[in-house]
Amino acid sequence: MPNAQCRMPASDMIAIIDYGLGNLRSVQCALRRIGAESAITADAGEISAADGVILPGVGAFWRAMENLRKSDLVKVVLETARNSKPLLGICLGMQMLFDESDEHGRHEGLGIIPGKVTLFAPGLKIPHMGWNEVKHGEPSPLFESVENEAFFYFAHSYYVAPDEPAAVIGSTDYGATFASAVQKDNVFGVQFHPERSGPVGLKLLENFCGLCKTN
Amino acid sequence: MLAKRIIPCLDVKDGRVVKGRSFVNLRDAGDPVECGKQYSEAGADELVFLDITATLEARKTILELAARVADEVFIPFTIGGGISTIEDARGLLSAGAEKISINTAAVKNKPLITEISEAFGNQAVVVAIDAKRTGESWEVFISAGTTPTEIDVIEWAKEVEQLGAGEIMLTSIDSDGHNAGYDIELNAAVNEAVSIPVIASGGAGGPEDMLRVFTEGSADAALAASIFHYGTYTIAEVKNYLRNHGVQVRT
Q: Domain of A181?
């Protein structure tokens, strides 16, 4: 870590994992707006030292997993999940938390939350793109002070089907109802882009950062 | 339910918004970031910045613009105009743009669509199609609507979907600038032909035009420039009208 010696340790540093895919800067801009310090990083040590970790992602599942493996970052993500540190997967980053995806053939995911990733049923416009409502009847700290059925911005063609219904903390209708937000202990996933979802998205990120602080 | 999107489009030349008139209480009404922020706060669902800068030198400003917008605006935004390589796309997306739109370069270099789509996901790739009616069909025009291509719009729409476009921005050259409504037939025909989202563009004169293009034209989003820039309607007025007519919009 070349810069480590001249940086004061931050009280709440969020690591945004950089594995060569994903709109990282927009996530960082959103965090900056809510006053959270963050680092875009591919350094396992830095990720490990952070108070919370965000796994973003766009593009193809297999490529994302391949990049994560090549960057030697799978281990630190699994450790983050195991060590009760808050972890938030966004969009493809959420999908990667699951066991497997059938995008471009069957590909193995991180296996942190049981379930699989699958394509929307035929007949729907794909990608599911735009603002859709998220129902979050079950209380989760992620949705604290976020109105039920608030609109969030989505852009995806595959969705997660968790094995355990208890993992679903938010759901959205597109043809059928799908899991748009999940939680398993300290691990969260959102299919939508909070960093692109205006004030409600910023609120959700603030909630996540709040968990990192108290952790 | 997925909401229909209302998207203001800002033309940007040398880093400045052109033809904006209605931006009130802004220190600098020519600043794309200030204008984008104001639209975002007014309820816009997305923003499109169309770079109409002619010189290559000045095009660097669009990268700075993307970064500055990303700093300040937390809704999705698309940047289009003059993107012809994957590096152009990479730069803009890395700066924080949600999507890039390609038009002329997509026609001249079809593999570019696939290349960008594979690298950044199809949700990041908007193919802009400028359509001009020729008898019973529509022809694709490129180079800011100046050059005919003899390509059929419907065939091209299907092809760009196959090549990896995640969305189509469909502009009717005939309707553009007339404020007399979108080309409903064109939108209906393209929406019938593809299963990716389509943004209707060209001709918005008021909320009733948007209602028609959503209901009769099956569009997923409606883009407008002058009615918003000149303050003819606010985004809230448009959305209220649509809501009152049974169209799902984001509140």
A: 14-214
CB contact A156 to B (< 8 Å) = yes
| Strand B5-13 with B16-17, pairing | antiparallel
SS3 A175: coil
- Examine residue A9 and state whether it is found in any structural domain, yes or no: no
Residue A126 domain flag: yes
Complex-level ipTM: 0.95
B147: distance to nearest CA of chain A, Å? 31
Is residue B130 among the annotated active site residues? Answer: yes
Question: What is the count of structural domains for chain A?
Answer: 1
* Cβ pair B130, B141 in contact under 8 A: yes
Q: Does A145 reside within a domain?
A: yes
- For B45-77, how does the pLDDT look when each residue is reduced to its tens digit (9 = 90+)? 999 999 987 666 667 789 999 999 999 999 999
**A155-183 pLDDT, tens digit each:** 999 999 999 999 999 999 999 999 999 99
Within a domain: A7: no
Residues in chain B with CB shorter than 8 Å from the CB of A132 are 1-3
